[in-house]
């Protein structure tokens, strides 16, 4: 279908975009802990992968660390939304740290799958990006026995000790299409391989990737609001690019090069699951100042998922 030519640029807003239930819960856990116990509150790893969110919490008294040995005994620590290995949980308990676990419930689901598969004496394949803390946490749920597969080439080269007793799980924020390709390669080589009872890629990742696919049908360029270390934000850029639309990952409006808008009439905007709505709005307003564009939200899925806070932080009735 030929795209209509119009003199007035238009901003097309992907729907859904931005925060998911797991991210909202993780941020609220830090905020509630600060309100209840006061600063400092220690957080192992960035609670979510967004520079603005992390800096905002830091100004309120959150201290972000990479390892528990940076935290004084008896302090309050929050595990990030990406999850942690069992060794970290055990060390926190040994040292008497007050722990609130902000691991996304959908990541916990994958952890439980790994534990269940391990008890069934299955050899496990983890499909994901090895540098990502979610993968570190998932692979750390058992002592060894997990193969990391990042690409279809890795899947083609895999040499399990017991191919007849093989199972797989996936990182929750992967490209849906990339994960399907890897799983397809594994199934072709190991027909008996067992997968999770329900797809590991989370509903929010799926919905945002589907929304970008719809966006790419109309947009001449796509802006993804998100930080460079956000896996799901990077995947949104990749989805748009694979459909032939140039995509730019921007932390905020300062990252936008006006030259990217030259000749563009349909400007797509979406955001990773860890990007706050205020930041998205700021980017939209900046694009409107540069182009005098109107804005239109596309149709999409309505998300109503809500995850409760840990009992120790829930409001008392």
Oligomer: single chain
- Would you count the extended β strands for me? 12
CATH topology of the largest domain: Cobalt-precorrin-4 Transmethylase, domain 1
Number of helices in the DSSP assignment: 10
Share of residues in strands = 15-25%
Strand adjacency order, main sheet: 10-9-11-1-12
Can you tell me the CATH architecture of the largest domain? 3-Layer(aba) Sandwich
User: What is the H/E order?
Assistant: EHEHEEHEHEHEHEHHEHEEHE
Shape, per Cα inertia axes: flat
* Low-confidence region ranges: none
Main sheet characteristics:
5 strands, parallel
Average residue pLDDT = 95
- How far apart lie the N and C ends? 56 Å
- Give the fraction of residues assigned to helices: 25-40%
> What do we call the CATH homologous superfamily of the largest domain?
4-hydroxy-3-methylbut-2-enyl diphosphate reductase, catalytic domain
Count the domains.
3
Quickly name the level 1 CATH class of the largest domain: Alpha Beta
Category from helices, strands and their pairing: alpha/beta
């Amino acid at each position: 279908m030929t795209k209509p030519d119009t003199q007035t640029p238009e901003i097309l807003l992907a729907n859904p975009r931005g925060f998911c239930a797991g991210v909202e819960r993780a941020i609220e856990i830090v905020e509630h802990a600060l309100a209840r116990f006061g600063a400092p509150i220690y957080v192992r790893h960035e609670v979510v992968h967004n520079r603005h969110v992390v800096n905002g919490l830091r100004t309120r008294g959150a201290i972000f660390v990479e390892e528990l040995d940076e935290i004084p005994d008896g302090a309050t620590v929050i595990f990030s939304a990406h999850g942690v290995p069992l060794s970290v949980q055990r060390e926190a308990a040994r040292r008497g740290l007050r722990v609130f676990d902000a691991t996304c419930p959908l990541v916990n689901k994958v952890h439980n799958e790994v534990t269940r598969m391990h008890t069934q004496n299955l050899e496990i394949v983890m499909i994901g990006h090895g540098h990502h803390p979610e993968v570190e946490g998932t692979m750390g749920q058992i002592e060894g026995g997990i193969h990391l597969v990042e690409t279809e080439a890795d899947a083609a080269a895999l040499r399990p000790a017991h191919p007849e007793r093989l199972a797989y799980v996936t990182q929750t924020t992967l490209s849906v299409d990339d994960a399907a390709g890897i799983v397809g390669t594994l199934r072709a080589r190991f027909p008996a391989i067992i997968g999770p009872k329900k797809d590991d890629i989370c509903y929010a990742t799926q919905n945002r990737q589907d929304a970008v696919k719809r966006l790419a049908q109309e947009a001449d360029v796509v802006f993804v609001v998100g930080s460079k270390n956000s896996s799901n934000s990077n995947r949104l850029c990749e989805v748009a690019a694979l459909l032939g639309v140039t995509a730019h990952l921007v932390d905020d409006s300062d990252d936008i090069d006006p030259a990217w808008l030259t000749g563009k009439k349909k400007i797509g905007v979406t955001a990773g699951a860890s990007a706050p709505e205020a930041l998205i709005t700021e980017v939209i307003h900046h694009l409107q100042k540069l182009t005098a564009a109107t804005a239109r939200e596309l149709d999409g899925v309505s998300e109503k998922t809500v995850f409760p806070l840990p009992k120790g932080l829930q409001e008392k009735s």
